[in-house]
């Protein structure tokens, strides 16, 4: 044991002297430098559990001098590494020799009399033994199927910093594949395993000497495995990362940054995050690779200063012509993680994606759509291109993938007509292809976008109803309510689901047991109640689920442009009435009444005194915001479409105004628009 310690110290002394002789101008002492060898598998290929690389840590003076400490103290010295110093560092890697499935590093030998051949021979023999032990370790690691298997395997091998990172990373990879209940069980057993504490002790002792990637991966694995953040282990690793931050390359920085994003704020986390931002800002001018720029952008996080985000944006724009299709696809998620909506970058990336969309993998397209939602980026050309591509290659995607696409488009308020029609045909022909989760997602997408396949609407709704009926015995009450509500928006009353929803115990649970969702449940139940009352095609009598709630009335001057145009068009303020409250809680922005016999407008006071409602034709003018329409169209979304349908049942001809577009019109154009909508209603009132 004593001999091994002496050998270790002697090896460290030899490496230090070699580094000093390779660059004698170094005056600052450096932290321990590690030359490490990783054994490969028997076939010579890299194992998923072992990361094959040439591992050499260059002297500390070659790195940037930005250092960060947890005591809220930051010091920054501008990096000034000359070309000669870099050349000297590269000279340390004199030769690379690959032998028997392993990678070895031979340093350039200075002509020193104290290095003897006997010492070299002995080191070679120990290296051969070490390769054999490493091979056995990684073979055993590949056979592990659970975190406890890894710990049992580690107990049969000497604990070494060389193996710690691989062991922890493997434990995390095995854990992340499990279901939530299995994860909790495996973590509890793992924490109780006696070898786990020894592994943690080794991490704390060797963190200062680990290779930078090993340190980053170990921190990531420890946090993801659920080790509490306030433990000495996690805090020690955070402090060591601060001290060695200048040694980290772009990949290590990315791993650390990703880890910090999921951690709670504390002094060490905030200090390390600040250090990352300083280091990224320092390295921006020297980065020429778009991929490296994206890595840096991911590192800084959404809490970074706006000035730093702008510098990265300008750097990307200066290299925008170098973007490859994968770069363009990845840029959306990078900007989303930064929480920075750069329209010039997003526009250029959108064009690149559309031009090269053929063969784009599923997850990349889905990530682009989800990132657009996070960034509040609405590009109908991009969305249409993705939707048309998915529809044209429909045979390539399974049901779950198409459902995820539909949900992503629904979150963007975009209605992909061709894709939705194609998917509806598949549902009709293969009704058993949907599970409960798929049914809920499909109902939500089709109802909120208010889309039904033309000519197959009833068949499609009946197929969804039959699919839902299979899950009624075990459906949650909240899911039941959402499903019925979606059907009601589409104008369909699902009888078995309605009967189950209107049971007293179900209603009581929704109104009292849902806690924070009570207000939302009331709104959904009220909508269901109105549908039962107005669309009486149900064998179930309309139930008084809730008292009728009135829609909040806007102030009389809420739509002044529309009111001014109506006054100009009708020439009498008494011929239209603003803010009219109707039955069932509905309200309309402006009401106009026309005498059917005389073909002229009827003042509101005369209409109130009239006893013969059949002689009056009513026009309801609705002013809707942009959010009430599907993106890039005047197609009303679910709730507005249901209101329009119910107003027609109440005897109104509905004039729908896209209010933001109406505001942009000149007065003459606005008058012509309303004149055409209102007076053309006389031809259609009978059919409404």
From TrEMBL:
Keyword ATP-binding carried by entry: no
GO biological process: one example: mitochondrial RNA processing
Top-rank taxon, per record: Eukaryota
InterPro entries noted in UniProt: FAST_2 (IPR013579), FAST_kinase (IPR050870), FAST_Leu-rich (IPR010622), RAP (IPR013584)
GO cellular component: mitochondrial matrix; ribonucleoprotein granule
Listed Pfam families: FAST_1, FAST_2, RAP
UniProtKB keywords: Kinase, Mitochondrion, Transferase
Molecular function (Gene Ontology), one example: kinase activity
Localization of this protein: Mitochondrion
Keyword Transferase (UniProt): yes
Domain RAP: 619-676
Protein name as annotated: FAST kinase domain-containing protein 2, mitochondrial
């Amino acid at each position: 044991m004593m001999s091994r310690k002496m050998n270790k110290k002697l090896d460290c002394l030899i490496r230090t002297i070699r580094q000093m002789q390779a660059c004698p101008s170094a005056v600052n002492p450096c932290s321990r430098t590690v030359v490490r060898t990783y054994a490969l598998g028997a076939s010579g290929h890299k194992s998923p559990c072992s990361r094959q690389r040439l591992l050499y840590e260059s002297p500390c003076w070659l790195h940037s001098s930005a250092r960060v400490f947890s005591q809220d103290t930051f010091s920054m010295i501008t990096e000034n590494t000359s070309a000669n110093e870099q050349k000297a560092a590269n000279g340390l890697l004199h030769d690379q020799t690959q032998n028997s499935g392993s990678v070895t590093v031979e340093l350039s030998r200075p002509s020193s009399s104290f290095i003897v051949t006997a010492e070299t021979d002995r080191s070679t023999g120990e290296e051969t033994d070490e390769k054999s032990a490493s091979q056995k370790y990684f073979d055993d690691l590949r056979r592990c199927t659970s975190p406890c298997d890894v710990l049992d395997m580690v107990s049969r091998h000497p604990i070494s910093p060389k193996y710690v990172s691989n062991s922890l990373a493997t434990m995390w990879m095995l854990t992340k594949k499990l279901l939530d209940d299995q994860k909790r069980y495996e973590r509890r057993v793992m924490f109780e395993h006696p070898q786990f504490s020894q592994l943690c002790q080794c991490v704390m002792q060797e963190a200062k000497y680990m290779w930078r990637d090993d340190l980053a991966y170990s921190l990531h694995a420890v946090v993801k495995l659920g080790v509490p953040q306030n433990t000495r282990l996690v805090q020690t690793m955070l402090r060591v990362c601060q001290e060695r931050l200048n040694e980290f390359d772009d990949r290590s920085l990315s791993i650390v940054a990703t880890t910090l994003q999921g951690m709670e704020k504390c002094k060490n986390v905030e200090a390390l995050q600040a250090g990352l931002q300083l280091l990224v800002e320092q390295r921006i001018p020297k980065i020429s690779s778009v991929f490296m720029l994206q890595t840096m952008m991911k590192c800084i996080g959404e809490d970074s200063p706006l000035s730093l985000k702008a510098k990265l944006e300008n750097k990307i724009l200066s290299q925008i012509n170098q973007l490859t299709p994968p770069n363009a696809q990845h840029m959306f998620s990078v900007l989303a993680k930064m929480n920075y909506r750069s329209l010039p970058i997003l526009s250029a990336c959108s064009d690149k994606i559309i031009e090269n969309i053929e063969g784009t993998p599923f997850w990349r397209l889905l990530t682009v759509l989800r990132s657009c939602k996070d960034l509040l980026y609405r590009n109908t050309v991009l969305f249409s291109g993705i939707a048309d591509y998915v529809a044209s290659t429909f045979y390539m995607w399974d049901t779950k993938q198409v459902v995820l696409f539909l949900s992503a488009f629904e979150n963007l308020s975009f209605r992909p007509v061709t894709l939705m029609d194609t998917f509806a045909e598949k549902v009709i022909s293969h009704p058993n292809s949907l599970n409960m989760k798929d049914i809920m997602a499909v109902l939500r997408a089709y109802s909120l976008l208010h889309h039904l396949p033309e000519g197959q609407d009833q068949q499609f709704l009946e197929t969804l109803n039959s699919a839902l009926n299979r899950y009624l015995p075990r459906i949650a009450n909240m899911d039941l309510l959402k499903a019925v509500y979606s059907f009601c928006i589409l104008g369909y009353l699902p009888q078995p689901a309605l009967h189950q929803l209107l049971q007293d115990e179900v209603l009581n649970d929704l109104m009292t047991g849902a806690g924070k969702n009570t207000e939302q449940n009331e709104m959904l139940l009220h909508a269901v109640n109105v549908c039962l009352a107005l669309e009486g095609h149900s064998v179930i009598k309309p139930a008084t689920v809730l008292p009728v709630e009135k829609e909040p009335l806007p102030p009389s001057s809420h739509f002044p442009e529309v009111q001014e145009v109506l006054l100009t068009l009708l020439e009498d303020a008494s011929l239209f009435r603003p803010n009219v409250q109707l039955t069932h809680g509905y309200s309309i922005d402006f009401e106009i009444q026309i005498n059917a016999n005389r073909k002229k407008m009827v003042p509101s006071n005369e209409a109130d005194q009239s006893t013969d409602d059949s002689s009056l034709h009513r026009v309801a003018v609705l002013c809707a915001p942009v959010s009430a329409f599907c993106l890039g169209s005047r197609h009303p979304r679910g709730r507005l479409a249901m209101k329009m349908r119910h107003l027609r049942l109440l005897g109104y001809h509905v004039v729908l105004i896209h209010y933001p577009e109406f505001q942009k019109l000149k007065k003459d154009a606005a008058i012509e628009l309303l004149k055409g909508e209102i007076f053309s209603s006389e031809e259609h009132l009978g059919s409404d």
